[in-house]
Automatic annotation (TrEMBL):
Signal peptide: none
Lineage: superkingdom: Bacteria
Residue ranges constituting the Beta-lactamase-related domain according to the UniProt record: 56-384
Source species of the chain: Maioricimonas rarisocia
Protein name: Penicillin-binding protein 4
Classification via SUPFAM superfamilies: beta-lactamase/transpeptidase-like (SSF56601)
InterPro entries in alphabetical order: AmpC-like (IPR050491), Beta-lactam-related (IPR001466), Beta-lactam/transpept-like (IPR012338)
Amino acid sequence: MATQAQAGLTRPVTRRSFLAAAALAPMLWRSSAADDAADLPDRLTGVAAADAGVVREAVVDFMTRHEVPGLSLALAKDGELKVQGTFGFADRKEQQPVRPDHRFRIASISKPITSVAIFKLIEEDRLSLNDRVFADARLLANYLDGPLAGDEENRQRLETITIAHLLEHTCGGWGNRQRDPMFVREALDLDHAGLIRWVLANRPLDHAPGEEYSYSNFGYCLLGRVIEAVTGMSYEGYVQQTLLKPAGVRAIVVGDRELDKRLPDEVRYYGDGDDPYGRAMDVRRMDSHGGWVASASELVRFGVHVDGNGPPADLLEEATLKAMTTPSSANDGYARGWAVNRANNWWHVGSFNGAASILVRTHHGYNWAVLVNTRRRDGDFIRDLDRLPWQVLRAIRTWPSDDLFRRV
């Protein structure tokens, strides 16, 4: 994070590559910028009046420059929720302001949730990082019984893919740089089992597992299926029962694609050209790599239970957290479900058509999340989304004593 959170997707992570690499779609809201933004509804809790103006100015500037309809942020210090802010509209047509309980699609922030679930199974001795996903009869070995692309070498490569390779995006291929398997048109209507069989039959690995970093949504789809194979539960059911409920998290669920199936407290998403409710946006099928829907405060509540920074109690042991956040040899900026840096900050960015998000844990005791109901192809968008909470942090000179988690 140097001084701010980095984020990386398809190449070895640098600050520039991870913040710029999310494929961002152009957008909406073509009304007059500064004047309209000045009238955005907002609700800011936990910030002294003397600091609130600076906070609001930073948020409105970001929303104006990037034409963001609605934004929600939450910031915790030393395990306690200190700041909540909502700005703009959950639904522009209905002129419905964003509320603190509004939920947003969090896209790839689903990957840290999946990683924590995998490491919980490792703590329980039900998995290990070295388990071979397609060679272990308990896991996904049955999928090698069907048609396979490539030659015998490809089969051998498949059999060497481990849990660690999937967590680290080093499984040997299936990256999102070209024809992301999760969004290939020919396979959009397949369920998880059908998709896995289609990929194995049509997409041989590019190289041996463990050699190169290639950000893979499909790899995290496989991890969701591993969780189901080991537990006998649905992926969402296991996460809810084992992680979210013990952490007191009540408002994080896997979403749905259709507009008419959105939750009563879920925002509306806005795309430009591509429909955020279209056929390609089957967020339920994306579950373990991009399917969760959350409010900013509940996402931070999850974050403070896996941050290793003291109270509240973490869901994972200290040694497990270290294993989860140690970078791979293929990419010193990405660990196992988290982007990391030398300052010992952990984070992840989420971005797909209609939504963008960032979740950050810092080494000095802060956790925050920022969620928006759009995304931009503008290369500065994710960079500025990352910078925004740092601006908010610098603006706060007096911290409130109240813990807002006691209210939400």
